[in-house]
Amino acid sequence: MILVVGHKNPDSDSICGALVAAELLKARGLEAKAVRQGEINRETQHILETAGMDQPEFCDSVAGKKVWLVDYTDVAQAPDDINDAEILGIVDHHRLGDVMTVNPLEAWIWPVGCTCTILFNLFKMEQAEITRPHALLMMSAILSDTVGFASPTCTDKDKEAVQQLAEIAGVEDLDSFIKDLLIAKTNIEGLSAAELVEKDLKAYPFNGRDVVVGQVELATLEQVDGMIEALEQDLERRCQQDGLAFAAVMLTDITTANTRLLYKGEWAEKLVKHEVDGILMMAETLSRKKQGWPWLQAELV
Ligand SMILES: [Mn+2]
């Protein structure tokens, strides 16, 4: 049995991608099962409901197992005992991380907007059948990762995949499909400050220290009015508890691509010069991968 596992704090690509990759392996005649390392978010819940699919079962231990990784290649985002597993395959669209393998592996790493875009092309290459639920999973993940094609990470391959998948899934009104998805994506009602920071938090080892950067996608920054202090306190707490050099959360208005950065830690003083009236705005910043984290890396050196 091959376990197909997305990253910690799973986003929609990590969940949908794992489900779809497991399906691809099954189409090859292998035994495979998608698993998840954490709770699914509201957007993913919406996607699974739309597709009529169950969430993968929880599993954060893979020692002695055969695994495929979906949507990451960093040890920090893998199950803690990943070094005791056999990595057979990788499907990802991020920079190459630091996982190591014992044996040769199958790796599909493309610079596109979403893991599911790569998976869609693999299905086509292998002439495997794409069912309606799996088409819905893939197109939703692509639209989520590319924020409805608006992200600078979006490529023609992503647009082409969505177009063909929408046809397979019988989705005629793509605009309203995207709107429903983005409403689910930006629904933060009732979430605590800690839950918001945790929502899409990524750990990056940097200059020999640990750094975390979260991102909360919003329909308007007003959604977090009144929570700024609590969010900053939560970042401070994480720095102290986990010995982090820097902890930040990007509050991103996905309609205007404006991001407000909240940040704490020993390295925080390096960024103060960019504040205006005590607020650090990152203009034209929608993507943590392509814009937020590269900028931070340059500033934190
Ligand atoms: Mn992704």
UniProtKB/TrEMBL annotation:
The keyword Repeat does not apply. InterPro entries: DDH_dom, DHH_sf, DHHA2, DHHA2_dom_sf. One of its GO terms (molecular function) is inorganic diphosphate phosphatase activity. Residues 178-300 form the DHHA2 domain. Pfam families: DHH, DHHA2. The keyword Metal-binding applies. It catalyses: diphosphate + H2O = 2 phosphate + H(+). Keywords: Hydrolase, Manganese, Metal-binding. Its EC number is 3.6.1.1. Its cofactor is Mn(2+). PANTHER family: BNIP - RELATED, MANGANESE-DEPENDENT INORGANIC PYROPHOSPHATASE-RELATED. This is inorganic diphosphatase.
